[in-house]
Q: What sequence folds into this?
């Protein structure tokens, strides 16, 4: 190895190590602070990083009767699972129709949806709230309400999936159709088994979104604590006047939220990269 | 002009065809004009007939029992306010402008849809008659059913998604566009108060620069939105590409480890990480406490209270969020560049910067053009990063509508809706966001090399 290569590699490693530290620093902090007891030591923000005494108080508090954290966690998990399933089905249906079938008004429909997508999502918030209220799906019914909102208009996010379907050769379809298979049969028995990566990608992205949904979740729950999800709860802990007492609890809750999502993501990372790269190139 | 002329010509032809069908048709067709689906049912296609008839019954039932009253009040959104009867002291419930507008729009759209279905019904009759005249068979109910999973499978698949998008996307958007032309705000809250049409008043307010007008604030927020989107997109783009190149560099070991570390920021819900990072930079946060402890500063740095600091910090922190994402995209694409291009460049004596400028960058810009566009428009509406980090603060008395110096148009829209119930201005802002996004998209789209020249680089 030449000397200049060695020097340049040294600097490359240096940059990478510094970056790794910067990137991991907040996560290390959040984990460390989650072990600082809110009652024994101090639950607010302090000017040191490593807790003086490591304790599991915050986690015990979260699982205890005093907080509804377990309930909120279950809410979020329910929403995430149902939205993930529903959204995947919707996206697959739309993608197949748009990729494989040629019908009147197809390009018109795609253009119309593209234009719709340019409106900011929050614009429709109050209207959606009243629509949900109409069905009785606000406040105590917030969980099914949020699932409905998450699934209902998800068909518009078909781009990545349709792009993937487009790469599956059409001659496969035609061969099956000549053998007498119906469109539905081609869809269920050929296209879906061939699209495992994109199905996993769609489901994964849909699963991760509800964990971050503060805006709609807090609006739909409208102060009814039973309808909260973890994002609303954590946000309130950090941003109420009382946050000094809840900061370490927020950290502990954050860790509990992050662990399963992160593990799931890391396991399915391969599919995620595939979907993201495909989506970036095709737009 | 030509398009309008064509449109009217098309309408004329259509009406003429409806008339001709009635004149030339048999009695089954003629009855179908009033009782939809009678013709197909009488000719043996019971399924189609029943479907048409069901649409007619449902529509009439909806309109008579529910929709019509709202449709008639749509012109002024109700005229009796909820009030207390002065004699009996009983509350008299008046009109609810919100529901009148919502159901009015719904009824109007359903009316149009019904006319369309009725037209389909007429054409169906005509087609059946023509087929019979030519001596061909009409098919059977069984065939109709089977077509729903075969040649008409698209209709089966798209029915549910389209219904969802209509109810939860199209209807609310039309509703909110209408709100922009009303005076619906904190002092005109349904159901106790009425609101009504005010024409272009809200748009005038947005561009009025006097005291209380939204003009100055709007310009400030819009400028910051565009500046933010520009920096957020391009800094993360080039940063991410640089990191990807760095990790791909020959002789670097543990490639997977470096990538995994960066990808952690995507995996961990932004909600947790960004909220935490925002608190890290607070006045009593970790960063400030250590800066003071080490004697670097005497008083806390006002990261979130100074407009300039907050803006720069947000852009920098966004690098932390955005770089891993771009890195993931670029890693795969960089490997697609043929190795021999680099080899021959090396033989010609090009240095690393030159190969990057002449080979890597053009290729990357070409393939990731669509990504850059979506990322730019995504950043224009990047609610999460802004709201979780700074909440749009610092606020200022110089800005109206509770806006702050790091507010984007969308976060401002959100604040107007939630905090000040100023729905009319929120709706106007929503329309502005749409205009900005669509104009940017149109301009960029026409410049995009991968659109102009699809065959290049292949």
A:
């Amino acid at each position: 190895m030449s000397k200049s290569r060695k020097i340049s590699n040294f600097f490359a490693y240096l940059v990478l190590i510094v970056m790794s530290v910067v990137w991991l620093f907040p996560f290390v902090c959040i984990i460390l602070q989650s072990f600082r007891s809110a009652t024994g030591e101090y639950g607010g923000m302090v000017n040191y990083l490593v807790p003086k005494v490591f304790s599991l108080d915050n986690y015990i508090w979260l699982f205890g009767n005093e907080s509804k954290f377990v309930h909120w966690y279950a809410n979020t998990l329910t929403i995430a699972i149902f939205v993930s399933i529903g959204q995947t089905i919707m996206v697959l249906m739309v993608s197949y129709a748009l990729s494989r079938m040629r019908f009147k008004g197809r390009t018109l429909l795609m253009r119309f949806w593209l234009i719709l997508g340019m409106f900011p999502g929050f614009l429709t918030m109050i209207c959606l709230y009243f629509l949900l209220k109409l069905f009785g799906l606000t406040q105590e019914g917030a969980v099914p309400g949020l699932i409905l909102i998450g699934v209902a208009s998800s068909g518009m996010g078909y781009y990545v999936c349709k792009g993937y379907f487009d790469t599956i050769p059409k001659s496969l379809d035609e061969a099956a159709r000549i053998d007498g298979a119906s469109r539905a049969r081609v869809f269920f028995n050929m296209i879906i088994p061939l699209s495992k990566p994109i199905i996993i990608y769609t489901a994964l992205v849909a699963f991760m979104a509800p964990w971050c949904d503060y805006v709609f979740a807090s609006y739909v729950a409208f102060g009814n604590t039973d309808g909260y999800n973890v994002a609303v709860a954590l946000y309130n802990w950090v941003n109420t006047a009382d946050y000094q007492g809840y900061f370490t609890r927020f950290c502990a809750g954050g860790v509990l939220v992050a662990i399963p999502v992160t593990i799931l993501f890391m396991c399915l990372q391969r599919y995620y990269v595939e979907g993201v790269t495909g989506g970036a190139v095709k737009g | 002009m030509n398009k309008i002329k064509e449109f009217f010509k098309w309408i004329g032809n259509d009406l003429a065809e409806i008339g001709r069908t009635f004149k030339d048709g048999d009695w089954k067709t003629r009855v179908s004009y009033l009782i939809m689906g009678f013709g197909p049912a009488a000719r043996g296609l019971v399924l189609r007939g029943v479907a048409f008839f069901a649409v007619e019954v449902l529509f009439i039932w909806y309109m008579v029992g529910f929709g019509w009253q709202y449709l008639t009040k749509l012109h002024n959104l109700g005229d009796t306010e909820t009030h207390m009867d002065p004699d009996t002291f009983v509350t008299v419930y008046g009109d609810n402008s919100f529901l009148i507008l919502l159901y009015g729009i719904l009824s109007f759209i359903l009316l149009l849809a019904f006319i369309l279905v009725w037209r389909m019904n007429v054409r169906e009759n005509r087609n059946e008659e023509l087929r019979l005249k030519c001596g061909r068979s009409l098919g059977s109910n069984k065939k109709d059913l089977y077509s729903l999973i075969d040649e008409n499978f698209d209709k089966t698949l798209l029915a549910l998604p389209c219904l969802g998008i209509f109810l939860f996307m199209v209807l609310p958007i039309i509703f909110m566009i209408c709100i922009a032309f009303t005076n619906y705000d904190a002092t005109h809250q349904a159901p106790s108060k009425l609101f009504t049409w005010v024409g272009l008043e809200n748009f005038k307010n947005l561009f009025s620069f006097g005291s209380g007008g939204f003009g100055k604030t709007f310009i400030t927020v819009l400028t910051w939105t565009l500046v933010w989107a520009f920096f957020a997109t391009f800094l993360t783009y080039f940063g991410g590409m640089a990191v990807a190149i760095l990790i791909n560099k020959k002789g670097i070991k543990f490639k997977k480890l470096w990538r995994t570390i960066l990808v952690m920021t995507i995996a961990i819900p932004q909600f947790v990480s960004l909220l935490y990072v925002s608190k890290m930079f607070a006045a009593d946060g970790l960063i400030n406490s250590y800066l003071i402890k080490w004697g670097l500063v005497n008083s806390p740095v006002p990261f979130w209270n100074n407009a300039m600091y907050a803006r720069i910090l947000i852009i920098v922190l966004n690098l932390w969020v955005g770089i891993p994402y771009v890195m993931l995209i670029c890693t795969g694409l960089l490997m697609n560049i043929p190795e021999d291009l680099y080899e021959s460049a090396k033989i010609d004596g090009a240095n690393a910067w030159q190969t990057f400028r002449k080979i890597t960058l053009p290729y990357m810009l070409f393939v990731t053009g669509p990504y850059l566009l979506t990322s730019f428009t995504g950043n224009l509406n990047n609610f999460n990063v802004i709201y979780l980090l700074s909440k749009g603060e610092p606020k200022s008395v110089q800005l109206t509508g509770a806006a702050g110096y790091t507010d984007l148009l969308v976060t401002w829209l959100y604040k107007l809706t939630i905090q000040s119930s100023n729905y009319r201005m929120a709706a106007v802002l929503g329309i502005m966001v749409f205009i900005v996004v669509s104009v940017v998209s149109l301009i960029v789209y026409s410049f995009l090399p991968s659109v102009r020249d699809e065959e290049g680089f292949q």
User: Anything to note?
Assistant: Residues 76 and 265 of chain A are 17 Å apart (CA to CA). Chain A touches chain B through 89 residues (CB under 8 Å). The two ends of chain A are 41 Å apart (CA to CA).
